[in-house]
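Hi support team,

I submitted a single chain yesterday and got back a structure, but I'm not sure I'm reading the token output correctly. Could someone confirm the output below corresponds to the sequence I sent? I've pasted both exactly as they appear in my results page.

Thanks,
R.
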Amino acid sequence: RIQDPGAAILLLSVRNIDPMIETVKKFNGTVVTPGGAPKTFMMTGAASLKGRVVMVTDPDGFLIQLVQLDTPPQSTAPAESNVLAAGLAFTVKSADATMRYYQDNLGFAPGLPKELYATGAAALVADGIAPAMGKSAVTRVPGTGVPVTFIEMQGGDANVAQATIRDPGAGMLRLRVKDIDTLLPKLKAGGATVQSENGEPVTFANGQRMVVIHDPNNFFIQPVQAAPPQPRQP
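Hi R., thanks for writing in. Yes, this is the structure output for that exact sequence:
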């Protein structure tokens, strides 16, 4: 459920919600916004936003928020693309504690540039869901323009059965990192558990390395260390 720690939500800012909803229904997704239709909303804060919002699931149960702003944001998306911007949100036990975990261990900095708020894909909109929202913390993936929101919600079950990475709808944040061996002990010390085979990073034939961990809030992180550069051929 969206209110349970571990729920992952894809946040999409779109030109037009209506054909997206038709696509969701066509492929056996579900509209989960109360009333089964988009809601109008207005948000103030770092950026004033007004438009329509709806929460849907894809056929595997993965949650997707669709936002259509009255004034479309600036975007480099092709003219034929309905999607203008994207972000991620995760339901957590404590927004403050989660922000500290990601800041201390992965270098996520609190806050966002104003232009990312203005995309419409940088926050979960309360009007589109039934559970009441509490505190939230907004950040972005270091070195990118991908916004991430950590949200506390009322009515969640902190002891909900943990998903496995093989379960449909499981959320995972994949991050390219410099050094898995230095990072992994820090993540484990903060309460994460390793899900990869034998509890160790996996090394592929080309030298690329990766590991899947379950973070303290019930969703997955996959640090990926790039393969070393290959020698240049004469």
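A quick pointer for reading it: The helical segments are 17-26, 95-106, 114-117, 180-189. Let us know if anything else looks off.

Best,
Support desk
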